[in-house]
Design a protein that fits this description.
Helix content is about 50%, strand content about 5%. The chain is an alpha+beta fold. A hairpin with a 5-residue loop joins strand 2 and strand 3. The termini are far apart. The N terminus is likely disordered.
Length: about 500
């Protein structure tokens, strides 16, 4: 399925710039080791790129062209610089909203997603800086499912749905609901399966477990999104017209202006047509932190990116001069312009990655201060959408920023995704992370009198004392999921 862009006169330019947009998203998503390899590859392929030599005695500063994109550039170079009325200090989100630089097909996103995610290692070993089996899409979803307080039968069906999802296919649910039920299932069983599918589709990443592209995109459209109603209309009723760039047809059927249709299409390009691709498994032998969080002398946590190993890049001065040399052939000038444009985009993408990752991490650290101060049991419920709103970016930008990134804290090394957890509301009306409940539950049972173990009612009372007032069925559910036997079984084992 192919989604082209607006006016025919701009199609060639859009197709030319689309790979740059894809590159920018790739750069944001790459962990530090993969980014080093990417830079080395680009330097081998692009003679316009060179490493800027710096005086070690001088403080680190961004090259002037990072701060002022037009400084010391020829007129030909300036034509290649992004001109959208905003400075390079703006958030990475502007790259996702630049009209000329959006990929012209959802297939571009699919192919790009595969290329990015084939390098992904989603190991979620919380403390050890050691090789681990990467967390699969199924593991990631089952972990979320375990944190939900839902009916046991619905949960069992949801687990079957999750088992049918494959990251290589983008995380789509390709079976029918009837196929995952017993042959003699009843109509009410099918209704439960519908509820279970809706629960799985509500999980992260957005759009997961969709039955087709249309449902995948619709499930990612939130009411607070810009042009949300128009996006739903175009996806649900005019996806084929979008694919064939039949904008006049859409205008005739909807009454929308061509400009509104184009704006809506741009918003749709921010959605991910293959959300499960982020979990393509690749084994990576070492965990290297991308970000370090340290306490300063004032007791405040400071965020620092671990990117000292990245070489400071600049555009070759030799080729700058060749570009403006009147004796250079037209063919040579075109080659240099093309390569300089690619080099500039790489440099800016790296800088935008630094800014975005720093801002996202700062907001996470600010929100999860109790975790850093008190430990994992104090983690707060947090959704990516909350961080996206704080930073002022799209939720998919936050998802790409934290993907495959690790953070070194005074309490150990953690994947950045570790700080996004589901929660519930306690009896006092406070939000409580499910993980906090599990950790405290384990602590209480570890310290109980083995000759007189605590019943589930007793555990509810003990958790309430610690400000974690939750229902008895929730305690029973988590005790079973943690492999902790009942009080009677624990008592019998204690006697043996």
């Amino acid at each position: 399925m192919r989604l082209s862009f607006g006016l025919e006169a701009r199609q060639i330019q859009t197709q030319k710039l689309a790979p740059r947009m894809i590159q920018s998203m790739e750069i944001l998503q790459l962990p530090i080791l993969a980014l080093q390899e990417r830079i080395e590859q680009e330097m081998n392929e692009n003679p316009m790129l060179e490493v800027e030599e710096r005086d070690e005695a001088l403080p680190d500063e961004e090259p002037e062209e990072y701060l002022n994109p037009n400084s010391s550039r020829t007129e030909d170079e300036k034509e290649l610089v992004v001109k959208d009325g905003q400075s390079n200090a703006e958030d990475f989100e502007r790259l996702a909203n630049m009209d000329n630089d959006m990929p012209d097909t959802f297939d571009d996103f699919r192919r790009s997603g595969n290329r990015i995610q084939e390098e992904s290692d989603r190991a979620h070993d919380l403390m050890a800086n050691a090789a681990e089996r990467p967390e699969s899409l199924n593991d990631f979803l089952l972990h979320q499912l375990a944190e939900m307080d839902i009916d046991d039968e619905i949960e069992r069906i949801a687990e079957r749905i999750v088992s049918c999802l494959d990251a290589r296919d983008g995380g789509y649910f390709k079976q029918s609901l009837a196929d995952i039920l017993p042959p003699d299932h009843k109509p009410e069983d099918l209704a439960l399966a519908e509820k279970a599918l809706a629960i799985v589709q509500s999980m992260e990443p957005p759009g997961i477990a969709a039955r087709n592209l249309k449902e995948c995109l619709l499930n990612q459209v939130r009411p607070d999104m810009r042009l949300a109603d128009e996006m739903r209309t175009l996806v649900s009723q005019h996806l084929d017209d979008l694919a064939e760039n039949r904008l006049p047809n859409i205008q005739k059927k909807t009454g929308y202006s061509i400009e509104l249709i184009k704006e809506t299409r741009e918003q749709l390009h921010q959605l991910n047509p293959k959300p499960g691709a982020a979990f393509m498994e690749v084994f990576v032998p070492v965990v290297t932190p991308d970000v370090v969080v340290e306490l300063d002398e004032n007791g405040e946590y400071q965020v620092r990116l671990v990117d000292d190993s990245l070489p400071p890049l600049r555009i070759s001065e030799y080729y700058r001069k060749r570009l403006s040399d009147p004796h250079s052939s037209e063919e040579e000038r075109e080659f240099i312009k093309r390569k300089i444009g690619s080099a500039q985009w790489l440099i800016e993408s790296i800088q935008q990655r630094r800014r975005t990752l720093t801002r996202v991490t700062q907001e996470i650290v600010a929100y999860q201060r109790k975790f850093l101060d008190q430990g994992p049991e104090a983690i707060e419920p947090l959704k990516m959408q909350q961080i996206a709103e704080k930073v002022g970016v799209h939720v998919t930008t936050v998802s790409r920023a934290v993907d495959d990134k690790w953070i070194q804290t005074p309490r150990g090394i953690f994947p950045l995704r570790r700080f996004f957890v589901f929660g519930t509301t306690s009896a006092d009306g406070e939000d409580v992370a499910y993980e906090a409940i599990r950790l405290k539950l384990q602590e209480i049972i570890d310290k109980e009198d083995k000759s007189n173990p605590l019943s589930d009612d007793d555990l509810v009372a003990e958790l309430t004392k610690h400000g974690l007032g939750v229902a008895r069925r929730t305690i029973t559910k988590y005790r079973k999921k943690m492999g902790i036997p009942s009080s009677r079984q624990r008592r019998d084992w204690g006697k043996s």
